[in-house]
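Re: Re: ligand-bound prediction request (bumping)

Still looking for help on this. To restate: I need the protein modeled with zinc ion bound, output as structure tokens. Inputs repeated here so nobody has to scroll up.
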Amino acid sequence: MFDKSTWIRLPRNVVVGHGVLEQTLDAVDELHLAGRPLVVSSPTPHAVAGERVVDQFEDAGYDPAEVVIDEASFDAVQQVIAHAEDVDAGFMLGVGGGKAIDITKMAADDLGLGFVSVPTAASHDGIVSGRGSVPEGDTRHSVAAEPPLAVVADTEVLAEAPWRLTTAGCADIISNYTAVRDWELAHRLKNVPYSEYAGALSQMTAEMLVDSASSIKKGLEESSWIVVKALVSSGVAMSIADSSRPASGAEHLFSHQLDRIAPDPALHGHQVGVGAIMTEYLHSGPKGRWRDVRDALGAIGAPTTANELGIDDETVIEALTTAHEIRDRYTVLGDGMSEEAAIEAATVTGVV
Ligand SMILES: NC(=O)C1=CN([C@@H]2O[C@H](COP(=O)(O)OP(=O)(O)OC[C@H]3O[C@@H](n4cnc5c(N)ncnc54)[C@H](OP(=O)(O)O)[C@@H]3O)[C@@H](O)[C@H]2O)C=CC1
Ligand SMILES: O=C(CO)COP(=O)(O)O
Ligand SMILES: [Zn+2]
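Reply:
Sorry for the wait, this slipped through. Here it is.
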């Protein structure tokens, strides 16, 4: 008997374009959600877009509630859940970068409420995914969470955000190359389930972004359009896989470890980009494609060295040698790199 089944949960409305923040209400009305909206954001996104979303719902006769969180943590998820219960929220909108959107989707999942994703930065590919990513102690959890019912990505808002956030989003996409390599490796060595569709979509997304690099320029709103569509596509790959595997391999473990140990971590996307240069070197050796990864990052103005990340060399080496401990996810790092090998990889690739 054929007994396989699969659930792929995707958003119904993906609204991308100039000024579409003003269509948030329309995108929500289409979903036939009921009750009180709760707008969740972090400080800057709240000022940039959250307040405008609240005003829209107020003007339309809803009674919107709002909450502002400061960090991506399980405490923040609990804070949002408690607030949603207090105000008897009927559905939620996550307005912000990866932090606000992750917290909202995890709280929405816990409460069984619908959730709408309103990115204010093209900085990460969690905009669409049904995964939440939160650190806890020495580890980082990638947990199943509520995928958005709709995405409202206003390219005017995204283009006005600091440019480094957009280059971080590009680097998060470029890191799909090594993430897919790690996934394939884990499939071959550890029989980890692999989805050809999700792997191909993730890789194609990275290729299309790299091919468009000459159109991704500061001050050009079209850049936000190109990047956000790639971020959506990468998130869809994660939804198809029901895992962050298509977009998160050893380069992400390295970044998550930097978030733990670096005194002043850089942006998520920038860290995974630099990690991808080194993990590509580990996959394919000194003559391999690590230069292509580095050049693709360089072409869009993302960091390619520890110095550009603002992180010292010793911390980069420590993160490389300990990244495999972050979570139970088999990658090219295997059961850990020796310090000598980590120094070699980081030096040959020019990261340190
Ligand atoms: N679930 C998933 O599938 C994925 C999750 N992630 C997660 O997302 C997070 C990374 O996302 P990222 O967006 O980089 O992190 P943040 O949400 O922390 O945003 C980065 C910074 O940008 C600021 N910001 C956001 N929008 C604007 C704007 N329009 N103008 C000015 N500043 C702005 C934020 O302000 P403020 O400090 O006020 O918030 C913050 O300082 C990580 O926690 C990562 O693990 C990443 C990829 C996929
Ligand atoms: O950042 C992500 C994909 O880009 C999510 O991956 P994690 O599961 O490693 O948090
Ligand atoms: Zn990422």
